[in-house]
Amino acid sequence: MDSVLLDTFAACLCEIVGEQVVEWRADVVVFGTHCRRGVGRVLLGSDAEQIVRAATVPVLLIRGKEPGFMQVKET
After folding, report:
1. pLDDT (tens digit, 9 = 90+) per residue, 37-67?
2. CA triplet 27, 47, 64: central angle to 5 degrees?
3. What is the residue extent of each domain of the chain?
4. pTM across the whole model
5. Beta-carbon neighbour count of residue 62 at 10 Å?
């Protein structure tokens, strides 16, 4: 599986993802999300939502851990 890491502030993330979809001829975009809700989402916006709205291919969102999530370690 291929991936790309870009470090830029020159453009909006949804524009960069859209350009990469065309360049790679991607069939799907897989994107992580922070699961922000309410005021945090309003103030910070949602890159995931913008990507889903602008995408020309299906987008699979992978949800991050919920705040307060406890991970159980197996022994």
Report:
1. 665 555 446 788 889 889 999 999 887 776 6
2. 85
3. 28-65
4. 0.67
5. 9
Question: Taking Cα atoms as reference points, which of 63, 1, 61, 5 lies closest to residue 26?
Answer: 1
The residues, any chain, with a CB within 8 Å of residue 63's CB and separated by 6 or more, are: 32, 33, 35
Question: Who's near 65: CB < 8 A, 6+ residues apart?
Answer: 71
| Residue 60 bridge partners (DSSP) | 30
Query: Could you give the CA distance from residue 66 to residue 19 in angstroms, rounded to a whole number?
Result: 31
Contact 31, 62 (CB under 8 A): yes
